[in-house]
């Protein structure tokens, strides 16, 4: 018998061949993944261009995709989709919610009202672009500071007899948050119907135990656009930034304040300075409409009982419009309203905002007002809780300074107020910042108040805050450090998506 001898292959040669094969496999895989990545990026760029959005915003996303490999793509997939065209939620069933505006002016009555002719244009616009009814004879109180606002809100909740509706972007599990929790539980035990909407992302630190304690007390509490597999992750960029409280359909609050200790005792930036408005009377129905519309979205059931719109008390002569805006609406209603007010200004415009990342249309409106002789003043915080947004904001200053806008940096604490007053004729208080996110992506609500007393109160509050500010001098600003200018310019590239 013959044995066929096999040639012996040394182990190190086998290892070398196997190693080469593995290396070749991973090399091919790497280039295939790289090609796939570039294909996805190219597809995203094509979608951005075909969407025909604002060119500045389109460029910002393209820059992010190119300059931030992988990270830019992830950000676009989560935050880049424009849902305004196909609406966040269906309008079906919403007509059942809206109260009959028995205590509001119609467009025909507007012409004969006491509202100045140049402001009737704004009122008509807001009625058409957002359905904001013109509620008359409402008691309006401006509240500056957290202590004052929470004291009034909690006192009104304490007196609630029928229902309490609460909607906030942020509710913290802290001293103020737990005071609210205990109060709501007690009112629920008194058979007062309590409904709460919280933004899922804004309240990501809110404990399950906090929410469970409310549910166990019989309180109806729902998250707005939760981030999960069922509802998807791509809508994470669209947040409910509204803050409102409605008590018995007779009293309502809105403004910039969230439920957190920082508005009372402060944090590393100091005590947060904010502005809220208390509305008692017919205008509370406007806030009720907005809340119940949002409740329909989170609960999928329309609340239509007439008891939520009781006959209100009437007070001094004025007109209030509660304007809601968001990715579910056809128009950027709040932005359009502010631009129209600025365009019609004759004497002065005073602006509080924590973030100033305006669209081009708003910058132009401010410039035109200042160049035409209107006293335009902007107040922003000297220190921000968002450094990138602060740097981007600074990049807009030179242009409006050269047009004659005066800019104040609030140094005492942190300015979180969102308030505007124009010509001592109209005051605007709400949740929208002067930035693209608030005007285009967030769900917001602003009160447009046609009332001389309210406008004067807001102007006085602005001047009181100015004592704690440094005013920017144009020549000094031009000569700031070159490195700061570079940092601001780079941050501005991302301003449309911050």
Can you describe what's shown?
This protein has 498 residues and is an alpha/beta fold. The chain folds into 3 domains: 11-79; 94-115 and 133-318, Endonuclease Chain A (Endonuclease, Chain A, 2-Layer Sandwich), CATH 3.30.870; 333-497, 2-Layer Sandwich (Endonuclease, Chain A). The protein is 42% helix and 19% strand. It has 17 helices and 21 strands. The chain has helices spanning 11-50, 55-67, 71-79, 107-111, 117-130, 146-158, 175-189, 208-216, 284-299, 333-344, 360-371, 387-394, 397-403, 436-441, 452-466, 474-478, 482-492; strands at 104-105, 134-136, 139-144, 163-168, 193-199, 220-224, 244-247, 251-255, 272-273, 275-280, 319-325, 348-352, 356-357, 375-381, 406-410, 414-415, 419-422, 426-430, 434-435, 444-450, 469-471. The chain has a 10-stranded mixed β-sheet, with helices on both faces. Strands 3-10-8-7-4-5-6 form a 7-stranded mixed β-sheet, with helices on both faces. Strands 9-16 form a two-stranded parallel ribbon. β4 (163-168), α7 (175-189) and β5 (193-199) form a beta-alpha-beta unit. α1 runs antiparallel to α2 (55-67) and α5 runs antiparallel to α10. The relative contact order is 0.13. The mean pLDDT is 85.
Can you summarize this structure?
This protein has about 500 residues and is an alpha/beta fold. It contains 17 helices and 21 strands.
What summary fits the major beta sheet?
10 strands, mixed
The CATH superfamily of the largest domain appears as Endonuclease Chain A
Can you tell me the CATH architecture of the largest domain?
Answer: 2-Layer Sandwich
Domains, number: 3
Helix/sheet category: alpha/beta
- Determine the strand fraction and express it as a percent band: 15-25%
Could you tell me the number of beta strands? 21
Strand arrangement, largest sheet? Answer: 1-2-11-20-18-17-12-14-15-21
Distance between the termini: 83 Å
| Gyration radius over CA | 27 Å
Number of helices: 17
Query: Which percent range fits the helix content?
Result: 40-55%
The global form is globular
If you consult CATH, what is the topology of the largest domain?
Endonuclease, Chain A
The average pLDDT value, as a whole number, equals: 85
Low-confidence stretches: none
Give the CATH level 1 class of the largest domain: Alpha Beta
